[in-house]
Design goal:
By secondary structure, the chain is an alpha/beta fold. It has 5 helices and 5 strands.
Length: 124
């Protein structure tokens, strides 16, 4: 699984890192597992850094991510900051964030981790 979750006892923040090759099926499965992880507490903000992930979802896959049953677990009850590379990955992430916002999630896209952390902490 090219995703890992790290929760530090010192901060109320979940850090997710995605890397390597992936596809729609395995990414969907990973997101579902992350949403079900008991370390991910209700209301805990999520910093999701996928700059090292090589997979780019197609427009139909972006729509499917938002409509899948796995979507609510990770995105519905958490502010999620997606940290991505500039360029195509940023565009795909913005499309996902726009669609997820319409589904009731709080998701923002950033190219700089520091800005993402500020937003998650309400300091933007």
């Amino acid at each position: 699984m090219p995703f890992e979750l790290h929760v530090s006892p010192e901060e109320f923040l979940a850090r997710v890192r995605g890397w390597g090759q992936d596809d729609f099926a395995s990414a969907s499965e990973a997101i579902q597992r992350l949403g079900e992880d008991p370390r991910l507490l209700p209301g805990m903000p999520v910093l999701m850094d996928v700059r090292d992930l090589e997979y780019l979802a197609t427009p139909p896959e972006v729509a499917a991510f938002v409509s899948r049953a796995s979507f609510p677990g990770l995105f519905a009850d958490h502010r999620v900051a997606l940290v991505v590379r500039r360029g195509a990955q940023f565009g795909v992430a913005k499309s996902f964030a726009d669609k997820s916002e319409r589904a009731g999630a709080q998701t923002e896209v950033f190219a700089e981790p520091e800005l993402a952390l500020r937003w998650l902490r309400g300091q933007s």
